[in-house]
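Support reply, case 0932

Customer input (verbatim):
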Amino acid sequence: MTFELFIFYLLAAIASISGVMMITIKDPVKAALWLVLAFIATAGVWITAQAEFLGLVLILVYVGAVMVLFLFVVMMLDINLAILKEGFTQYLPIGTMVVLAISAMMYLVLGPERFGLEATGAPVVHSADYSNTKAIGIQLYTFHVYAFILAAVLLLIGIVAAIALTLRRRPTTEVRYQNIDKQVKTQASERLKMIKMTPVIEEPIKPKEEEEK
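Our regenerated output:
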């Protein structure tokens, strides 16, 4: 066994153990930290498989942004663990069946008959000037461009749906809302109104000494 293969299996084992710990642990903060470790180990697996761009993106995007956001949200929320544990034994058989079904489907798709070395062959060793980012970009923006656009549209719909679901409109007695349509249709004559007023001349302020006299 070579050193690279040893590192590959070590990182894969760490990712698998971290995933299991993330699901089975009771504390949500510790579960988020185990998920961060799983992401880091998975990024290492991708880097050893010559997918440096995906590994770096996984660390920068998921570990550096998404998981940190999740961790802060979990730490700020007052989560009642007793409520979360209710009904665990009730849904345990259904959850076990779902896990077995998903595992069976993953084995049928990702089994050694389809993705083993006998079926795919040994991975190609590229030269030092090989650009992993360029290879992914060519495949993504040429052969899979429609799937990429569809994924972007789905993400946009998810963002709009999340904003619509969390939007709570307060009554007009508490806050003031902008009417964009009314603002656009406003004429120049409606923005400024000239009023004629008679001038008011104020009396000069007398010194304090004169007021006392």
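We compared this against your earlier run and they match. Two observations from our side: The radius of gyration is 32 Å. The chain has three domains: 1-79, 89-125, 132-168. Please reopen the case if you see a mismatch on your end.
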